[in-house]
Amino acid sequence: MEDSEHAEDKPWLALPRHNREKGCSMRFQSVTSNNVYDYELAACASGKTLCGSSSAVLSSPPDRNPYDYILMVIHGEERELAYYSALTQTWIEIQEAGRYYDDIIFRLGKFYAVDKYGKVILCEPGLPPTVDEIAMPWLLRGSKVYLVVMAIRFLMENPNVGYETYKFDASVGDMGDWAILLGQNESMALSIRVVKGAKGNCIYFTDDNFDAYKYGVVGGHDIGIYDTGEERSKPLQCCQSDIQCAWPRPVWLTPYNNGSFS
Fold first, then answer.
1. What's the pLDDT tens digit per position in 135-177?
2. Which positions, given as ranges, span the membrane (predicted)?
């Protein structure tokens, strides 16, 4: 699949396998045009999982720097940090960082992470890795916090599907010509002048409530667009039969992963 072929139609949602008779197809749907693209992926035929349960962020595209990139992840039931170094081909646990992280991003050569209490750390991979706390924990009255515009997600119970997002709070009141993408992978801010069809001052979100699985609630359904000006959300016009109760969950694919909000 050529990334530039439909670049102007992104961001996409990468959906789980949808045609089990084929067994190796993947569906991608544009959230701006609602166009759907189906591709045959060789990785599926081997039976390997395409999307794991961890949040993951790359320091650079592996196809550009195959021997010099870092992959940092939030993993495990206690949401700890670890990273993979392509240079040394090793995984390293960052135990000094603590537990219960919600989001990680890579900006200007450095990794940042925020935990469920609002503590923000700067992490630089190395032997050993260094961890510096740059923002102290604060009273967080929400379900999850994201580093982009320090957005806080609020969930409520839904008797039909278990839970749903009902609002977001962001440290920036009016985001103007920026759209925020939140979910399982890196949180991002994209300019609507670059991404055709995206709506500014809105948060596009996918389901990343992994804690629900501890209580037997199957997720994947909590997906939509939240308008911060109108303070209300609406569903994305996607194939709900593919998303509802699906595993792995949908993740964002964008023309680039270096969007920044300023």
1. 888 767 788 899 988 899 999 988 888 889 999 998 887 888 8
2. none
pLDDT for position 43: 41
Question: Cis before residue 248, ω within 30 degrees of 0?
Answer: yes
Which strand (E) or helix (H) includes residue 131? strand 130-135
Per-residue pLDDT of 43-57, as tens digits, reads: 433 343 333 345 778
Name the nearest CA neighbour of 104 among 132, 136, 82, 130.
82
Q: For 261, which DSSP code?
A: -
DSSP states along 20-89: TTTSSEEEEEETTT--EEEEE-HHHHTT--SS-SSEEEESS-TTT-TTS-EEEEEETTTTEEEEEETTTT
- Characterize the bridge pairing of strands 202-205 and 178-182: parallel
**Cα pseudo-dihedral 168, 172, 177, 180, rounded to 10:** -40
The two tokens of residue 243 are: 């998303």
